[in-house]
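User: My collaborator and I are trying to settle a disagreement about how two of our proteins should look. Neither of us wants to argue from intuition anymore, so we agreed to look at predicted structures for both before our next call. Could you fold the first one, then the second, and keep them clearly separated?

Assistant: That sounds like a sensible way to settle it. I'll keep them separate. The first protein:
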Amino acid sequence: MHSIKELKNIKGKVVIVRVDFNVPMKDGKVEDDFRVKKALPTINFLQKKGAKIILIAHLGKGGETLAPVSKVLNKYVKTKFVPEIISENVSKVILEMKNSEIVMLENLRNDAGEQSNNKFFAMNLAKLADIYVNEAFSVSHRSDASITILPKIMPSYAGFQIQEEIKNLSKATQNPKHPFLFILGGAKFSTKIPLIKKYLKLADYIFIGGALLNDFIKAKGFEIGKSLVDENNYGIDKILKNKKIIIPDYVVVRNIEGKLIQKTIADIYKDDIILDVGNESIKLLEPIINKSKLILWNGPLGKYEDGGSKATKEVLKIISQTKAESIIGGGDTV
């Protein structure tokens, strides 16, 4: 990767920055601006160099506007929002930009060309600028036009945040410290299964939580009630045989009366919904945390938006009090 620190003489140049502003929204308002603030060092650096900055990002699955995000960004740095992506008006706005000015374009996913990795769409974006900067680590695995095509057709550089994230995550992939604990939660099984297979080779312990846990409980032959589960077969039976895998024995369920109850995985009823990891399971995890030298964590341990946030908060507290090097990631974990 070429760092933006390598950029010379960019005063007056137009720099298109792919940021990650896919922030949590509620009733049209930004609930958390953590990701917005993390992009500021790169934005400020380019602004001080006198570059004209175009910010591009996606929000949700498409159909939503980035206008509320632009409003939040304006608290930190003056930004003009253009509610279009590619148009004569966008070209006109950019042509009239002064040095160090910032423009944010509309949600990339509002154009089908983004997710279909359309070269024509990417080339139209590229025409707007001289230089491309990637500052969106969390979407860099996607085959989207703004991620995969732009760096091929433009001089491309890495922003400060993406460099920082790769530097830290490399600690968990290149000669990691041991004992090494990997905590995996969240719900997207298709994206998590490769992580499990990868870290079965690298880590000493893998603790499973979140909606992923439901799939493992089901694979062990237990009832999971009405809990969220992935119907695809990912070869969990084989993974379960590995002694590195730790499956919590105690969970928090919401029963038919709507009450949150701690249960063993053997006592789940057909109307129960698993929402979190139970207290006894946290006690099982605590000594492993305390003896670990490296902890990597991806995804919350429970469905926090429905009352399953306790275990995640408790485990975060335990980790924060250890001397272990901890790397915690994922949009929901923020």
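The second protein, kept apart from the first:
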Amino acid sequence: MSPRIPYRYAFSFLIACVSALASLALHYGDLSARDNPRVSAACLECHADQAAALAATAHRSSGGAPDGPDARVACTDCHAGDQRHWEDDPNQYAMTNPSKLDATAGAQLCSACHQNAHQQNMRERNSHATNGVGCSACHSVHASAHPALLKEAESALCLRCHTNVAAQFARPFRHPVNDQIVKCSDCHMTLDQTRRQLSPNGTSVCMKCHAEFEGPFPYEHQATVDYSVEEGACISCHDPHGSYLPRMLKQPYEAPHFQLCTQCHSVPRHNSNSMHGRTWSGVACNDCHTDTHGSYVSRLFLSESLEGRGCFNVGCHKF
């Protein structure tokens, strides 16, 4: 048999339980006063200036129920807080302002609805997020005349921060970003998987437009594949934003030093040996090695037109 509890202790225990339950009831009553229902109507009564702006964006309610579970988008989906903000004192019970959140918290909030590769990347290791640049730095939630609710035209928005790149787009050979033919996101938003920086790496980005160089080729130029030159691929030779050289090359491939090619290929007396003679001493590398991205016929990426010049008769060059 369990020992009996003296009445005086039982009474004290009962009083303690009642006090605890009362405290718990008050606590949950306080929580229910600070819950966060899906509400827009009450918000827009005071913030009438936002009502018309939101109507022209993807965050509009589309004429449906502004509040409750059937609301398409509710103000409190983003502006979390206390319903006493609109029922009692808005100054005392402030709502969350997403634009004041840090980059990580902002990405977490937006990802509640926007579950795409870009948004997931922002949450994981995006170069913008790691530098404290959040969603609201580029996107205007309440009003925008630009795609994806950008604050301004894409190229101007990007180049406002990336001023060094803006100077590269002023070079004579460049991607036509300033001409609105190519957008920054055409290259920097190609994310087939998350956990990657928002930056092109390898050939997949370039081949979206330059598919003729994709291959596969029986004879690959190692500089064009992902696993070579520290995964440099196309940008091992080409400057993706702009260059002073044709084809947006990083270095010249012409005489006298042929820097672009000789940074990887060192062929002693290649341009002045006894077979070539002085005729070929100043010829640019790609005059003979025409298929530098990859070849179907030559391991040296040589042009078939050289056969008529007798280049393959002496046994040095073979297809």
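Some points you might bring to the call about the second protein. The CA atoms of residues 197 and 253 lie 31 Å apart. The longest strand covers residues 173-174.
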